[in-house]
Amino acid sequence: MKTSLTLARFHLLSVWNWRTSHLSRVIEAPAYFLFMVTGLDTLVAGTRVDGMAYDDFAYAGVLVVIAVRALFWCMGDVANDRKWGVYAVARTTDVSFPQYVGSILAANTVVATVQIAAICVLKQLLGRGSFGQDLRMAGLAVLVCLLTVLTGCALGFGINSYSKRDLMTSLFSLPLVMTAPLFYSLDGLPLFMRVMAAVNPFTYCVLLVRSPAADSFPVQAITGCLAAVLLVLGGLYLAAGRHELASNEQG
Questions:
Q1: In the chain, count of helices (H) and strands (E)?
Q2: What are phi and psi of 130, to 5 degrees?
């Protein structure tokens, strides 16, 4: 535990040292809520979406956007660390794979939790909040971020070039956001989008986060999230088998 926390400190110091590069990690989610969600709320004009106010519906969506971003930021962190940085230090000091993953999990979850807290506070400041319900949704979003950070760890050990990292981010980040019911209901969408939503893990993540504002027990959400957990554990198992390998990234 001490080793993981020490490495996590180095991760967070790296974020601070490159804070201007990471500024988007702080401002992106509040910007989504402040501008896009507020703007879309004027279009629905008080209409309830999937049985809840649009503010609550889209609040869960923004929280899950943070989780999506955490996945790809973490994937990039691990890919970079395999060539230099914290992972390079870890390999010279006989740090185990679980200790390294623990450090990534701690550092990236701290950053995501700060973002989630900022959205929760912003919702209250805009007069659109129900604090107890919003806090429960935020807590579930932190759990989702734990899962996505571990997913990023597993993927990061399969990335060995900047081009592959950028391709993964560009190719999958937007489809994952746009085919999950983050900002609109799936009802009435074209069939191909509903099919994609059914296999998109973030569909079930957002249903879980949104469950405190829903009227029914989230059986579908829990089932989908448990399936995602099993897939991530399998990915980490495969990653553990190649954790000793340095990246062959050349630039």
A1: 11, 0
A2: -125, 95
- Identity of residue 161: S
Q: Indicate the pTM of the whole model.
A: 0.84
pLDDT digits (tens, 9 = 90+) for 169-218: 878 888 898 899 998 888 888 899 999 999 999 999 999 999 998 877 88
Stretch among 22-31, 69-78, 186-195, 218-227 having the lowest mean pLDDT: 22-31
Q: Both ends of the chain: CA-CA distance in Å?
A: 33
DSSP string spanning the chain? Answer: -HHHHHHHHHHHHHHHHTTTTTHHHHHHHHHIIIIIIHHHHHHHTT--BTTB-HHHHHHHHHHHHHHHHHHHHHHHHHHHHTTSSHHHHHHHTT--HHHHHHHHHHHHHHHHHHHHHHHHHHHHHTT---HHHHHHHHHHHHHHHHHHHHHHHHHHTT--SHHHHHHHHHHHHHHHHHTSSSSS-STT--HHHHHHHHH-HHHHHHHHHHGGGSSS--HHHHHHHHHHHHHHHHHHHHHHTTTTPPP----
Q: State the burial class of residue 205 (Cβ atoms within 10 Å of its Cβ: 0-12, 13-18, 19+).
A: buried
